[in-house]
Design goal:
This protein is of the alpha+beta class. The protein has a two-stranded antiparallel sheet. Strands 3-4 form a two-stranded antiparallel sheet. Helix content is about 35%, strand content about 10%. The protein is built from seven helices and four strands. It folds into two domains: about 45 residues, no CATH class; about 140 residues, Cytochrome Bc1 Complex, Chain D, domain 2, CATH 1.10.760. Strand 3 and strand 4 form a beta hairpin. Bound molecules: heme C.
């Protein structure tokens, strides 16, 4: 062993020993103090109460939809007071802010396949795949000047109204709620698929393995799958 090899070797042993001793302490401390007292006596354990406001992700299939409901009339009221100044009275977009009513799904798919820039023609009626994620996005992010200021009932109401504005729900009497949001069929739904990653099995390669660095060569719009990344070996 050269001097530097010896140094590396002993540094590795040292790090492993340190990791072991920290690990050992962690187990003993958690048992001794309980989760509410934090870990290793530092800080404070997080409570369910504190996690609650962060635990708001709603999944495409309706998992985690919160209790609530809202009708078109309430949605329209909210939309005109808090949304129309940016998204337009009819969802056509205002002052450079995004349209909610995009071009038809057929036109959108055609443009995406032809490699055209689809940013200016996208909307809820073409790119958006699922109504529950629309509620999630609206509650989480909108109105842009005051995110998360809507109650869940109001978020359901305004989600319902933008679905009406974009011709996805055509019945004015429809009331959106946790019981029916996942059943609304968005025009773009069939263009979405579940990403199957991880797509490799993490088997250790012992010989003739890949020896180049992976390089991201660009993001492409293929069909309507936005942001797909191609990879290519560098050598
Ligand atoms: C101050 C301007 C502003 C206001 C007011 C506003 N929005 Fe937005 N909205 C935006 C911007 C900017 C984006 C794009 C944000 C992004 O892509 O992350 C956006 C995106 C959206 C989208 C996603 C559109 C898409 O196709 O990706 C929806 C839906 C939406 N807003 C709904 C609402 C609703 C409902 C309200 C009212 C409660 C509202 N917005 C109020 C500026 C605004």
């Amino acid at each position: 062993m050269s001097k530097s090899q010896i140094f590396k070797f002993s540094a590795t042993i040292g790090a492993a020993a340190l990791a072991l001793s920290i690990g050992g302490t962690a187990v003993a401390s958690d048992k001794a103090w309980g989760i509410d007292q934090g870990i290793w006596g530092i800080g404070k354990g997080i409570t369910e109460e504190a996690i609650k406001p962060w635990d708001i992700s709603i999944f495409f299939d309706g998992t985690n939809l919160p209790e609530g409901s809202g009708d078109m009339a309430r949605g329209e009221e909210i939309y005109h007071a808090q949304c129309a100044m940016c998204h337009g009275d009819f969802g056509e977009g205002a002052r450079g802010y995004p349209r909610l009513l995009g071009d038809s799904i057929e036109r959108f798919v055609e443009a995406a396949k032809a490699g055209e820039d689809t940013l200016g023609i996208r909307g809820l009626n073409n790119l958006w795949g699922h109504a529950p994620t629309l509620l999630d996005m609206i509650y989480r992010q909108m109105p842009m000047f005051a995110p998360q200021s809507l109650s869940w009932d109001d978020a359901y109401a305004v989600t319902c109204y933008v679905l009406y504005l974009t011709d996805i729900v055509t019945d004015w009497d429809f009331v959106c709620s946790q019981d029916n949001l996942a059943e609304i069929k968005m025009p773009g739904r069939d263009h979405y698929y579940t990403d199957p990653r991880p797509d490799h099995e993490m088997n250790r390669c012992m010989k003739d393995c890949h020896d180049g660095n992976l390089e991201v060569v660009g993001a492409a719009v293929t069909g309507v799958a936005v942001g797909q990344v191609e990879r290519r070996d560098r050598n």
